[in-house]
Amino acid sequence: MRLLSTTLLFVFFVTDALATTIVVGKNQAVRSLKKAIELCHNGDTIQLLSGIYKEGNITIQKAITIIGIDDPVLDGEFKYENLTIGGNDIHISGLVLKNSRESSSNDYAAISITDGTNITIENNKIINAHFAIHVNNSTYCTIRNNDIQGQAKSEQSAGNGIHLWKCSHILVEKNHIRGHRDGIYFEFVTYSDIKENISEKNIRYGLHFMFSNHDNYIRNTFSSNGTGVAVMYSNHVNMEFNVFEKNWGAASYAILLKEISDSRIVSNKFLTNTVGLFLEGTSRIAIHKNLFKENGWAVKVQASCTDNNFYQNNFLQNTFDVSTNGSLVLNTFNNNYWDKYDGYDINKDGVGDIPYHPVSMYSMVVEQNPNALILLKSFMVSLLDKAEKAIPSLTPENLIDNKPMMKPNQL
Fold this sequence. Notes:
- The N and C termini lie far apart (57 Å).
- Helix content is 11%, strand content 45%.
- It is mainly beta and 411 residues long.
């Protein structure tokens, strides 16, 4: 046993000692990144010095590290993918990748990863890419602290910033993505984390989930996108401490949920969106300790939703707090703070003594006839809403908060 341990230790030190660093630059012995990759072995490091490298598509299949020094540029000239990666234990950092090939039918990318494990892409700048980082069928990869700037003009001609398909155990962290179709896209991605990213000014979604289970997104900011986040056909998704702001437009949502279940939406901020949270076909979602402020609609709950629980949220200065398209409501609201609540608290326990009906009659009218929104500030609408509160007839009778809070919840 001692002989085996000694042999393994010897092999480790020999392997480490054999690892070399190849420096690539205009005044170096090796002037081409492709040539350096050809020369290097598993475990080696390539230092790419400042300069513009127009070498077409560069393929990496060895377990190597490439480190850019002083922002070297890999220019795809709009004709090539910049880097195509496959294999294990590859680390890319400090590069500027620009002008990758564009296509309306193929997913060309600045960095394309297929069948990879333990790949790290960090501290890079990606400019004018069709897809910036495209990852297929890969595991245990990290995409961290990249600055991604696209020039998308339409959904049909644009790709996504960070695109993952059929992956697991991926960390997407501290990236800044803007100007793409979707900032971040997950399809068939499991057991992965999206943390502390800024995804803004993307044409369609800041973040798009499809058929992706057991994932977390935490402390991200989704601002001024077509829609902040769409989570579809997924389950066990955890959404915490995110900011959704200024996702504003005729069909814009901070979060769009469709056919998802057994998930959590906790301690998020929904600020100045057309619709803060839209739920369709959802079940068993815990929605608590969120702030809904200055949205057109704070929450839209479709009649197809069941067993969702809204509690300890704060609703402030929204045009409509809650809207629905049906009369049968199978969701619960408790201990939320509503700034429109005008009830009383005789026993001073902090909870209103009469239930609160957050759905106004006018919101029901607008749900059926959107053109009625033009009457928003009219005296007649105000009068009808007050009459509906006194004698409910059109609003869902069982959509109520039985324990409305007199003061905002501590979030």
